[in-house]
Write a structure and sequence with these properties.
Order of helices and strands: HEHEHEHEHEHEEHEHEHEHEEHEEEEEEH
CATH topology of the largest domain: TIM Barrel
Oligomer: single chain
Mean pLDDT: 91
Distance between the termini: 35 Å
CATH class of the largest domain: Alpha Beta
Radius of gyration: 23 Å
Largest sheet: 9 strands, mixed
Number of strands: 18
Number of domains: 2
Length: 419
């Protein structure tokens, strides 16, 4: 898709709006599967938390992907999108035993990351196969908020707790059918990843009835021209060779699993915002847009970089702008960035807006969340309507302050998901 396509979408559906290019999702999926083409059994489980729109999930389902989920609700979205329960893995952190049991009852693969829940679940449900999330104590990731494999992380069961883990498995007689790790996001050094993988292989030797080993993900994508990224092809060649060697040692052809999120959808996403005001101060030129960190929080939360292009004037003379939002606190997308000359009313395009963008949006300042559009087979398809005021107040319950009484509310119904 090109700038004119994006401008037409902004005109038709308004701004701000999220746009996703299905063709890019497909090409990224094929690039990843191609890199591991020498592995006999490969399973890609898309990380739903990156972008959870049902229509996007359907695109991935058509490709043969599975799902990596972290909540009951993500599992339900996957089932609604047509995924089979057996193609979904549930990897929560700090959730209740009841939620895990509810997911297990749906037939989804369970992945447990702490000894307490492992023992409770194994005691009650020794017949249900379980994957174990290991913390390899390897620091990896581009930001402390997205590095999850280090020794102080809340994620995973420490490799130093292996004797305790094995005792629980023996006492409960539960079946461990998978081993999993995830060290962090934005990983560049594949040697660090391969080192962590060796720890996972050593751990796997303790379990004689495995079906798969899940290596997590965290592959870095380029955020700007000339940016460095994970060399997927080199990584695929090295890990595939080592994985095949391990399968021979283990005596069984295991499945190699990954759970990419950002790698599949980040570059497919574009966030379009309209410029409300160009404001010159004594030292800065601000471009104030009709959005804020309520819609795109990554620059403020992670210091994430998003290329910003003025698609209304792409060939204009570059000037320096600080692009800011309308939230009533510091709300800066970028400082002093070279962007083609901006005029009020122009549409700015934020790139790499497919992962952890809409899914982290909120109604802060009582603003509506934006629409989402899928560009599929050369056409724009609305896949989420822009919110309205009625959406904002739908679940609020007003109290009559004079009487202290609440109006009668319609009885809630339990909704079951078809399998």
């Amino acid at each position: 898709m090109n700038n004119q396509d994006l401008l037409q979408i902004a005109k038709e559906y308004g701004a701000p709006v999220y746009v996703y290019d299905a063709e890019k999702i497909v090409s990224q999926y094929q690039r990843l599967t191609g890199a591991f083409g020498k592995v006999k059994h490969l399973k890609i489980n898309y990380a739903v938390k990156a972008l959870s729109n049902i229509s996007v999930l359907k695109v991935l389902n058509n490709l043969g992907s599975g799902l990596d989920t972290v909540s009951l609700q993500e599992v339900q979205l996957g089932l609604r999108a047509g995924f089979r329960p057996g193609d979904i893995i549930f990897t929560p952190n700090g959730v209740s035993l009841e939620e895990i049991e509810e997911v297990a009852a749906l037939g989804v693969q369970i992945n447990i990351d702490n000894l307490s829940i492992l023992e409770q679940f194994g005691t009650k449900h020794s017949d249900i196969p379980v994957c174990i999330r290991i913390n390899p104590h390897v620091m990896a990731g581009g930001n402390t908020n997205i590095s999850v494999g280090h020794i102080d992380s809340k994620f995973g069961i420490s490799i130093h707790q292996m004797p305790h883990l094995l005792r629980i498995v023996e006492n409960t007689r539960m079946r461990i059918n998978g081993i999993h790790m995830h060290t962090g996001s934005d990983i560049l050094d594949i040697e660090v990843f391969l080192y962590a993988s060796e720890i996972l292989f050593e751990t796997a030797k303790h379990f004689k009835d495995l079906d798969f080993i899940d290596f997590g993900s965290g592959f870095k994508v380029p955020y700007k021209e000339g940016d460095i990224e994970t060399n997927i092809e080199e990584f695929g060649k090295k890990l595939s060779r080592r994985f095949n060697e391990f399968c021979k040692e283990y005596g069984k052809d295991l499945t190699l699993a990954f759970e990419p999120g950002k790698f599949l959808v980040s570059e497919a996403g574009f966030f379009l915002a309209r410029v409300n005001v160009v404001k010159q101060t004594t030292s800065t030129v601000f471009a104030g847009v009709d959005t804020g960190f309520n819609h795109l929080i990554r620059p403020m939360l992670y210091g994430a970089h998003h290329d910003i292009v003025n698609i209304s004037n792409p060939d204009g003379r570059d000037r320096f702008y600080s692009v800011v939002g309308y939230i009533c606190e510091t709300d800066t997308f970028t400082n002093n960035r070279r962007i083609a000359q901006i005029t009020e009313g122009d549409i700015l395009c934020f790139k790499n807006a497919g992962a952890y963008c809409f899914t982290m949006a909120s109604n802060y300042n009582s603003r509506f969340r934006p629409a989402e559009v899928l560009w599929y087979n050369g056409q724009a398809h609305l896949i989420r309507k822009r919110e309205t005021f009625e959406d904002l107040v739908r679940n609020q319950v007003e109290v009559d302050l004079d009487t202290g009484k609440q109006p009668k509310q319609p009885k809630e119904e339990n909704i079951t998901v078809k399998q």
